[in-house]
């Protein structure tokens, strides 16, 4: 099964990191990614630019509405994600546990909906 | 299959088999089919077939094995049909994937036990909410109806049905595995399982409604699950303590009801008829559990049950120590029900006035207002204080909330007694 691991962290903390700490964290993410790529779990993933770069789009009555900022203001923000292949939820939870951001924020584990067979 | 039972019995046999075997059959079908919903459907199919076939040909010698193989075959037929359909649609360019579940030879008894253990860990997976874990276990392992579970947890039947649908839906969609967790996770996962097992036992020991005060098979199910857990994790003292607790309660089973099905209180029970072997095993396990490190909630509760079991007469009961153990339990695992039990024990040591004050404090916080035993305990203390009018009111409140028939009868009698003395 495929799971999307959504990484939520308070992005202020990320921005407040010293250059050295920030480099260390990047290194941790790189080695984590390498590790799950080697084990065959990795299907994709990226970090996101901070929410101040976000734009929210809605269409109402056929008209497009564009607003500055993220969809929801929350204490922790979506900062990145991994798409992984896992045998079951326990394996996906194990992969989520290894993401560096799990120690400061949290990881939401969401199964990918299979393509409908019609 | 060979027929061993005469035909007129088929219907009653099906009813009995449903009650006793559906949990085990379902557990095995889930492993064979790899899907919760498919297994439930397969089992329903098998029972529908049984109604016709057992009536006509007689009851098979091993009904459970028959149900499992019939259910499995039905489901495989269905999947093959779907597969043909899928092949046709794949030719049209749809991207699909369907796995045929592995077919295994008939299961021996140990395989069946493994299935049930696997299933209970799946039902108690931390990704499922606690209330749904309990509901799912009662539904799938113990074969309770949705309505019975709803009543046990004081929610409406549709709400409970939805809770179950959501939980099985998550097991499937999120890929919650069907297996006993690896050693590294076992301790943590076991806690949830123990809670659920104890709730199953309580449901069996004092069924939440209807005439059957003692639903033997549920209590035995829980004890058997307890033994399985102890065998699986002998070093986990809390499973042993839970097993001890259940054995000690269950040892009194035969004396809890009179000849006419009326409720007999602990102080009035014939202690010579308590199951001596079960008490002996229970007491041994309590000692083991208490010597295995700091006492957890089940160890404390089993120690309380042991004090009751050791008293040869009600007056020998060491209420002072029982009250102290409840206070310890309140500290380790606080709950309003434990507080109520503590209050009752305190009343035995320091008199009804003090017990009443503690119970009124619980009620003043608005807790346990819908719990009949709070009103019944209050009524009893008021009666002992000779405050008849208030006692009558409290018995009436208890009666309004009680659903188990023998308890209702007991409360009605007490009420009549009070009124006749006015």
- Helix/strand-derived category of chain B reads mainly alpha
Spatial strand sequence of the major β-sheet of chain B: 1-2
Helix content estimate of chain B: 55-70%
- Overall shape of chain A: it is flat
Radius of gyration of chain B: 24 Å
- Unreliable stretches of chain B, pLDDT < 50, 5 or more residues? 94-107
CATH structural architecture of chain A = 2-Layer Sandwich
Largest sheet of chain A: 4 strands, antiparallel
Can you tell me the number of structural domains of chain A? 1
Please report the distance between the alpha carbons of the first and last residues of chain A: 19 Å
Order of helices and strands of chain A: EHHEEEEHE
User: Structural class, judged by helices and strands of chain A?
Assistant: alpha+beta
Quick rundown:
Chain A has 3 helices and 6 strands; from the N terminus they run βααββββαβ. Chain A has helices spanning 11-16, 19-38, 89-98, and strands at residues 2-9, 42-47, 55-60, 63-68, 77-85, 106-111. Among the domains of chain B are: 3-96, Rna Polymerase Sigma Factor, Chain: A, CATH 1.10.1740; 110-175 and 184-233, no CATH class; 234-254 and 270-317, no CATH class.
């Amino acid at each position: 099964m495929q799971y999307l691991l959504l990484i939520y962290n308070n992005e202020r903390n990320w921005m407040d990191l010293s250059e050295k700490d920030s480099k260390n964290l990047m290194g941790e993410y790189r080695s984590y990614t390498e590790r799950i790529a080697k084990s065959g779990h990795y299907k994709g993933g990226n970090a996101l630019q901070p929410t101040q770069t976000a734009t929210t789009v809605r269409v109402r009555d056929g008209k497009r509405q564009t607003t500055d900022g993220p969809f929801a203001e929350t204490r922790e923000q979506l900062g990145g994600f991994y798409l992984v292949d896992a045998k079951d939820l326990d394996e996906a939870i194990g992969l989520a546990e290894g993401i560096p951001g799990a120690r400061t924020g949290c990881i939401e584990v969401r199964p990918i909906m299979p393509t409908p067979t019609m | 299959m060979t027929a061993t039972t005469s035909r007129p019995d088929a219907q009653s046999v099906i009813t009995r088999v449903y009650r006793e075997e559906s949990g085990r059959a379902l557990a095995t079908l889930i492993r064979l089919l790899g899907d919760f919903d498919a297994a439930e459907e397969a089992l329903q199919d098998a029972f529908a077939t049984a109604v016709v076939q057992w009536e006509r040909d007689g009851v098979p010698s091993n009904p459970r094995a028959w149900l499992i193989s019939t259910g499995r075959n039905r489901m495989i037929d269905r999947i093959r049909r779907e597969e043909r359909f899928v092949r046709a649609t794949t030719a049209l360019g749809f991207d699909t994937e369907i796995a045929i579940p592995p077919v295994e030879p008939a299961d021996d008894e140990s395989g069946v036990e493994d299935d049930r253990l696997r299933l209970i860990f799946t039902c108690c997976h931390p990704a499922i909410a606690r209330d749904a874990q309990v509901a799912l276990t009662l539904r799938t392992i113990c074969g309770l109806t949705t309505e019975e579970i709803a009543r046990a947890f004081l929610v409406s039947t549709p709400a409970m049905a939805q809770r179950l649908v959501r939980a099985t839906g998550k097991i499937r969609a999120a890929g919650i595995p069907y297996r006993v967790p690896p050693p590294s996770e076992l301790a943590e996962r076991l806690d949830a399982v123990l809670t659920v097992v104890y709730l199953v036992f309580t449901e069996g020991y004092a069924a939440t409604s209807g005439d059957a005060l003692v639903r033997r098979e549920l209590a035995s199910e829980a004890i058997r699950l307890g033994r399985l857990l102890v065998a699986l994790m002998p070093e986990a003292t809390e499973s042993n303590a839970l097993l001890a607790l259940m054995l000690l309660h269950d040892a009194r089973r035969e004396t809890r009801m009179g000849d006419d099905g009326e409720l007999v209180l602990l102080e009035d029970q014939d202690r010579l008829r308590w199951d001596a072997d079960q008490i002996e095993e229970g007491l041994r396990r309590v000692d083991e559990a208490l010597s295995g490190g700091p006492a957890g909630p089940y160890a404390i509760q089993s120690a309380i049950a042991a004090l009751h079991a050791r008293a040869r007469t009600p007056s020998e009961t060491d209420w002072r120590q029982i009250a102290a153990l409840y206070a310890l339990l309140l500290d380790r695992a606080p709950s309003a029900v434990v507080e109520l039990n503590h209050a009752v024990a305190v009343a035995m040591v320091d008199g009804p006035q003090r017990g009443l004050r503690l119970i009124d404090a619980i009620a003043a916080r608005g807790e346990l207002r819908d719990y009949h035993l709070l009103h019944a305990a209050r009524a009893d203390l008021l009666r002992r204080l000779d405050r008849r009018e208030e006692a009558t009111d409290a018995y009436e409140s208890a009666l309004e909330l009680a659903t188990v028939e023998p308890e209702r009868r007991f409360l009605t009698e007490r009420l009549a007694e009070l009124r006749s003395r006015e």
